[in-house]
Design goal:
It is a multi-pass membrane protein. It contains 14 helices and 10 strands. By secondary structure, it is α/β, with parallel strands linked by helices. Strands 5, 6, 7, 8, 9 and 10 form a 6-stranded mixed β-sheet that branches.
Length: about 450
């Protein structure tokens, strides 16, 4: 016997008229009667809430208002990428619920802690922010910078001094040995052969040099000291040169607030952010920085940051630097940096303050929370990253481990040219000395 499934069915027969009403909240709370429920083609109960174009005011400063206007006007001629999803959240909310927004620029409520307790219910755990100082990174070294950092003039003066001391020491030992024992050569103190002493030159470079079998014991001890000195000096010079060649920065970036104060770097800061720092964090924060503190409008400020080539320090949100740093890593450039010791404030809640009787207060908070829970804000961040790359005309650097090229080895050509040029000069000097001695003998 086959298995039988029983489904209970309830059949209702309408024998009298039923009055059905649908509640409409806006513009005024009213009940609309539905005459025929069965023939109604529209949804019986509207699931999508609409404010039917009601006007709401946004109190914001000029920069934030411009950011919201940019999101509203997709055909704007301003193509400068701007980071942050605050304006996007407001625009999406007004478009989703059919709200007309009026921007009032007379107010600046970007940073405030008034009525904070009354707004605790609107705290979003995803909307904490930090204030940091972003500074230019260190610059790459050129061959000229390397020789300048080596202090080549002082090094050359030291080599010539040691060269002269060793020549004088060898000459004194030879003359005294000849006069006391009659061994060796005692043909004067200063001669051309004495000045051009290849043994001393080789010892300074850490190279080996021949020693005659009839060399006296004092000279052997001097040559041993010369060899030890040459080994130590050449090793030290080689290590220092290698460390400079492998070091990628000439002047390291500022890593803490103390270095920031001593660097004299000009700081670009928004007036509302400066007011918040001075009133809520440290009233003397900017007075302790010797450099100038200037205000640049948001459009120009974003152009300075987006160019990734700036000689200024910037006080900005951590979210903004997070986006810029992702672009830097993607294109293989490191122009702006920060550190954990350049954090001014962190993990601070960011809240949109609203009036107690605002009809969008609770709904807007839930809307923003769902944006972060769904990951839509990450999608907006990816779009901002691509906009910045398009603005920089940059492409992703897929291969970070780039092999050496001829350009990377150009410094070896300069070094070899210097060495061969010096050897040719010494060779010509030896030929001149040989011809001079030969003419004297004739």
């Amino acid at each position: 016997m086959s298995k039988v499934q029983i489904h209970p069915i309830l059949i209702m027969e309408i024998r009298q008229k039923v009055a059905v009403y649908r509640f409409e909240m806006f513009r005024e709370p009213t009940f609309i009667r539905l005459k025929n429920v069965l023939r109604n083609k529209k949804p019986l109960f509207m699931a999508k809430l609409s404010f039917y174009g009601m006007t709401t005011e946004l109190h914001a400063d000029l920069d934030f208002a411009n950011q919201v206007n940019q999101y509203y006007n997709n055909k704007s001629m301003d193509i400068t990428p701007r980071f942050g999803t605050n304006g996007k959240e407001i625009v999406e909310f007004t478009q989703r619920y059919n709200i007309t927004m009026k921007i009032d620029r007379r107010f600046n409520i970007s940073f405030s802690n008034s009525n904070y307790l009354a707004s605790l219910g609107l705290v979003n755990p995803y909307r904490s922010f930090s204030l940091i100082v972003v500074v230019p990174c260190g610059t790459e070294m050129s061959l000229k910078d390397i020789f300048k950092h080596l202090d080549f003039q002082s090094l050359l003066a030291f080599i010539l001094t040691v060269y002269g001391i060793l020549i004088i020491a060898e000459t004194v030992i030879r003359v005294l040995t000849y006069r006391l024992h009659g061994v060796g050569s005692g043909s004067g103190w200063i001669t051309a052969r004495t000045v051009v002493n290849l043994r001393v030159f080789r010892s300074i470079l850490g190279m080996s040099f021949p020693i005659g079998r009839r060399t006296t014991l004092p000279l052997r001890q001097l040559f041993l000291a010369m060899s030890v000195f040459g080994m130590v000096f050449s090793t030290f010079f080689g290590c220092k040169l290698t460390s400079l060649m492998t070091k990628h920065t000439r002047i390291g970036p500022v890593t803490n607030l103390e270095e920031l104060r001593s660097s004299g770097l000009t700081i670009v800061v928004d007036p509302s952010i400066r007011k918040f720092i001075e009133t809520k964090i440290d009233p003397d924060f900017f007075k302790k920085i010797p450099g100038d503190t200037i205000y640049v409008p948001m459009k120009e400020r974003m152009k300075m940051i987006n160019s990734l080539k700036t000689n200024f320090g910037h006080v900005m949100f951590g979210e903004t630097f997070y986006q810029i740093n992702k672009v830097q890593l993607l294109i293989g450039r490191k122009e702006v940096c920060t550190s954990k010791d350049l954090v001014i404030a962190e993990n601070m809640p960011r809240i949109f303050f609203m009036e107690n009787k605002s009809y969008v207060k609770w709904l807007f908070n839930v809307f923003v929370l769902r944006i972060y829970e769904s990951g839509l804000n990450e999608k907006w961040r990816r779009d901002e990253k691509m906009e910045l790359m398009k603005y920089l005309h940059a492409r992703p650097n897929r291969n970070h481990n780039v092999p050496l090229t001829i350009g990377d080895l150009m410094w070896t050509g300069y070094l070899l040219s210097f060495g061969y040029g010096l050897s040719i000069i010494i060779f010509l000097a030896e030929l001149y000395l040989y011809e001079t001695q030969r003419n004297q003998m004739i």
